[in-house]
Design a protein that fits this description.
- This protein folds into 2 domains: about 180 residues, D-Maltodextrin-Binding Protein, domain 2 (3-Layer(aba) Sandwich), CATH 3.40.190.150; about 100 residues, Periplasmic binding protein-like II (D-Maltodextrin-Binding Protein, domain 2, 3-Layer(aba) Sandwich).
- Helix 2 crosses helix 9, helix 4 packs across helix 11 and helix 6 crosses helix 11.
- It is globular, with a radius of gyration of 22 Å.
- It is of the alpha/beta class.
- The chain contains 11 helices and 10 strands.
- About 45% of the residues lie in helices and about 20% in strands.
Length: about 325
């Protein structure tokens, strides 16, 4: 005899497939991690490092695919338009929080179209100068800049880049007039500082630390709120006298909007497990970054604060693309 199904039973039945997916059924096929930057860059390196470990934990192939162009927007738009089933994910850097304030017509909405999964790692910039500069501290640099307004310059990977914003914040809080010199990428900017053609730069610790250790650059401070484990004797910019200063670059994982919360939590948990594994953690630390591994809610709050901070710097400095 036919018996009507109760509402509670129906809801439970609907929830079972996703619960199973979140706990053990996912993934049943290869997972793709999209990176909007070129192979070999810091974002790509982080994605491949974590992706390889996730593949081991999932027991499935995790493929990293580079979809470059439009400051990472092409790759982000691809994932935003993908099915919310966990099989297309996105690894981004801190430029993700900057682009909404620079570009009027992004092909996706960074807030509504992608769901935060986990903050993977956070890294300070190093404030570095050419060794010929007559300064050995932030205090001496600020004094030199104030005595020669508009004569010192700093390089960055381009207008609106993370390094550019780090420099603009320094100028504002230190009260100095230093000229910005944009390049087509952080690599060329760093090369010109090492050649002595530009006085200084705010370079990612991942790409700058080796040159500091070799003596081709002199590090004055780290831009994070606390000292770097890679260079514990180097003060923060705030410690060195520029109160309130902090600026970092970071790497994180996102998924298409509307991905079920249970699945987001599953992927976030596996990401945290990967980041905390000795092989991944030690590699991140050796490169000068700090492993994180956050929940979706924690990363959502972090991302909102980063977008707000970037917008304030861009507006105050009049940064335009």
């Amino acid at each position: 005899m036919f018996k009507p199904i109760s509402i509670a039973s129906a809801l439970l039945a609907c929830s079972l497939p996703m619960a199973a997916l979140a706990q053990g059924g996912y993934p049943t096929k290869p997972v793709r991690i999209v990176v909007g930057q070129s192979p070999g860059g810091a974002t790509d390196v982080v994605a491949r490092l974590v992706g390889q470990k996730l593949g081991e934990q999932f027991g499935q192939t995790v493929v990293v695919e580079n979809r470059t162009g439009a400051a990472g927007s092409i790759g982000a738009a691809f994932v935003a338009n993908s099915a919310p089933d966990g099989y297309n994910l996105l690894v981004v850097s801190s430029s993700y929080s900057i682009n909404p304030s620079l570009y009027k017509n992004l092909p996706f909405d960074p807030v509504k179209d992608l769901a935060p999964v986990s903050l993977i790692a956070e890294a300070p910039f190093l404030l570095v100068v050419h060794p010929s500069m007559p300064v050995h501290s932030v205090k001496e640099l600020v004094a030199l800049a104030k005595s020669h307004p508009g004569e010192l310059n700093f390089a960055s990977g381009g207008n609106g880049s993370s390094g550019h914003l780090a420099g603009e914040l320094f100028k504002y809080l230190a009260g100095v007039n230093i000229v910005h010199v944009p390049y087509k990428g952080a690599g060329p900017a760093l090369i010109d500082v090492m050649a002595g053609n530009v006085h200084m730069t705010f370079g990612s610790v991942l790409s700058t630390l080796g040159h500091v250790k070799s003596g081709r650059l002199r590090a004055l401070a780290v831009t994070a709120p606390k000292r770097s484990s890679a260079m514990p004797n180097l003060p923060t910019v705030a410690e060195a006298g520029v109160k309130g200063y902090q600026r970092t670059t970071w790497y994180a994982l996102l998924a298409p909007a509307n991905t079920p919360a249970a699945l987001l939590n599953r992927i976030s948990g596996e990401t945290k497990k990967a980041v905390e594994s000795p092989s991944v953690k030690n590699k991140i630390l050796n490169d000068g970054a700090e492993p994180v591994g956050s929940t979706p809610a924690e990363f959502r709050s972090f991302l909102a604060a980063e977008m707000k901070h970037a917008a304030e710097i861009i507006k105050r400095a009049g940064v335009k693309k």
